[in-house]
Design brief:
The complex is a heterodimer of chains A (276) and B (540).
Chain A: H1 2-8, H2 11-33, H3 66-102, H4 104-119, H5 122-133, H6 137-147, H7 150-163, H8 167-173, H9 179-215, H10 226-233, H11 242-269
Chain B: E1 3-13, E2 22-32, E3 36-40, H1 47-55, E4 63-71, E5 74-75, H2 81-87, E6 92-95, H3 99-102, H4 109-120, H5 125-138, H6 144-149, H7 157-169, E7 175-179, H8 187-204, E8 207-212, H9 215-221, E9 224-229, E10 232-238, H10 239-244, H11 249-257, E11 273-286, E12 295-308, E13 312-316, H12 323-330, E14 338-343, E15 346-347, H13 353-359, E16 363-366, H14 380-390, H15 395-408, H16 425-437, E17 443-447, H17 455-471, E18 475-480, H18 483-489, E19 492-497, E20 500-506, H19 507-512, H20 517-525, H21 529-539
Parallel strand pairs in B: 3-8, 3-9, 6-7, 7-8, 13-18, 13-19, 16-17, 17-18
Antiparallel strand pairs in B: 1-2, 1-4, 4-5, 9-10, 11-12, 11-14, 14-15, 19-20
The chains are: A mainly alpha (276), B alpha/beta (540).
Chain lengths: 276, 540
Amino acid sequence: MDAIKRYLRSPPAVIGLVLLVIVLAMALSAGWLFPRDPLSLAGRPLQWPMANPRFWLGTDNSGRDIAAQIFYGARISLLIGLVATLVSIVIGIVIGALAGYYGGRTDTVLMRLTEAFQTLPNFLLLLVLVAVFGSNIATVTIAIGVVSWPAPARLTRAEFLSLRNREFVQAARTPGMRDLRLIFGEILPNALPPVIVYASVVMAVAILLESALAFLRLSDPNVASWGNLIGLGRDVLRSEWYVSAIPGLAILVTVLAVSLVGQGLNDAFNPRLKGR
Amino acid sequence: MSAILTLESLSVTLPPGADRPHALEDVSFSVKANEIVCVVGESGSGKSMTANAVMRLLPAGVVLDRGRVLFEGRDLAQADEAAMRAVRGAGIAMIFQEPMTALNPLRTVGDQIGEMFSIHTDMDRPAIRARVLDLLDEVRIPEPAQAAKAYPHELSGGQRQRAMIAMALALDPKVLIADEPTTALDVTTQAQILALIRDLQRRKGTAVMFITHDFGVVAEIADRVVVMQHGRAVEQGPAGDILNRPQHPYTRELIAAVPRLTAPPPRKLTDATILAIDGVSKTYRNGGFLGRGARVTHAVRNVSLALPKGATLGIVGESGSGKSTLARCILRLIDPDSGAIVLDGKDLAKLPGGEMRAETKNIQMVFQDPFASLNPRRKAGDLVAQGLMVHGTPRAAALARARELFALVGLDPASAERYPHEFSGGQRQRIGLARALALEPKVLIADEPVSALDVSVQAQVLTLLARLRTQLDLSIVFITHDLRVAAQICDLVAVMKDGEVVETGPVARVFGHPQHAYTRALLASIPGRDFIAGRQAASA
């Protein structure tokens, strides 16, 4: 409860939350505001925003409604952000927890593996994965999750290293608790706050990764995503710049919102770090 | 002689939301040249805050709002930050409880002492180096030239505290404030440091404000005493008067709670042995590349002990003597390298993981730190019920049992719904005890269960432990560094040094007629032993 109060006391965190709620509302209301398929032909191509009252954000080079694509794109971006983050955090926690708790050889093997992933630029790895497994929305999302786990894993491991020798862990071991229950029942809840905060960074990066992929036209072309729209606008960037700029702005706002919320969570969880 | 440092009705306000409005209320006392004033009190009494207020090193949100701090005729409460910087170190110096955290780990000790001169004087480098060596020699560090080049982690705790004292005395301050400087040290080291402070103070005529919670230390070192409770100075006067004729009820209570060194009359022990430790060893190897420069630490060396049924076996020793490692070996939290640990005919050292987990219901442990040993994210009731649930009791029954245990250890059963941080240190230790007793163990291992507690709370927990021992027919292994505590509760005692047991026997014999030189050294180092002995003679 204290954490919530502290969170609401910070203006940037509240702004972030409001922006995130707006993006969420866009995603939820898309089907109701724009009942037609956002990828279907709606009117004359390349109409400027406000030029035609039917298309208040204009149309792209294929004559599709940009406003509809932005609203439906919010769904895709949030979905990719959440699912990819979940995938990477779960992998990261499991690997980090096992490495940190057992130490020794387990730690060495798992950390070398993590380093192997970290040394590869994750966008290149993502390109390879998408090239091999194809680019539909599910594989793209999972691929983004799979390339983002090393950082959460290292963070979890560091928390476990400092927590595993605490007396309360030994005290839980004395009545004969098993390792898995110790790891996930006793230590993990204490290690979680910094990992949750870091998840917001992963989410922002996941949204950006998908956009980058779409910009290169390697994401799923059959969904209305912001990245796809930017990629499309690339061809008419000099004359009709708004086709790229509008979804770009949407991405900027969403990533900003997620980062502000993450920062707010960080301050709320670690009140002592604030005010210094 | 006139006072050098005078506190006049000093008040310090805590930020809103703290447990009381004032950290200090109307505190007045003075320190004269060439005397040691001990400020005594339990945790939260405001004794450290007094030192911080004098140095104007108060935490954020804590405000010195009334009163004066007169130092050489100047009011430090009104002084600006530049004036305070000139006073700190040169006029009033301070030493802290934990020298390891007060020293910068990345710079050599000599460098850090020399810094005092480069900040406050314009001596050149060779002169500074010479002064540093003189100082280290003065605080009797062995091989000062080596110590000056050493990093903090390369020195022992006692040597680090000597280096801190050298740093504090570098500029010949008029006043030395010592905030629990010996609390983190072993008794034998503590005795040496106390002697050193006393000696330096006499030679240099420094005024010393010595903050401590231990009346033994007070008896050892104080000229005058100020007793603090809840931010007020409740009693002050010459040391002899306060110690022998305390007026205020709180002072009397504190002095009465100081454990005595004589054992209570011996209890009758059975011949049946419940726990036998036979030749247990544990060795740590660390560091070293390809075996070069590797360090081998014999944490526990060939220890054999026997615990009769219903008895309490004390294991005493200083830090690094291996007593905690031994306790963890008995419970298999650490696997011993060799030896047998026979509990009721079963060798725990050889049990495979699964059987050992089942066996844990017969042997349980109470941990030292009441703040670190309870998972902060679980309710107190859950913590106590956890062991039962691991061993197959359904949740509802386990929680009901936890409430009974709360009553048994003197806690309100309704408080089972609260989280650990809502309890005081003594209450937390009771939760730890309830948790250990939940499985109805035959043997209880208590690892320094009272060393983190204030004396008055310590006495309560020891009384509780003694009551439970007879009520539940427990056999206890009681680990402590404090010989006074061991004398209170143990039937048998084993003295450990460097991983080995050097002496063992009934507590009255070991403490009354120690055979081993180390046992004698330990007993001689107990602070205020003459005072304790005097009180015993008086009350007998």
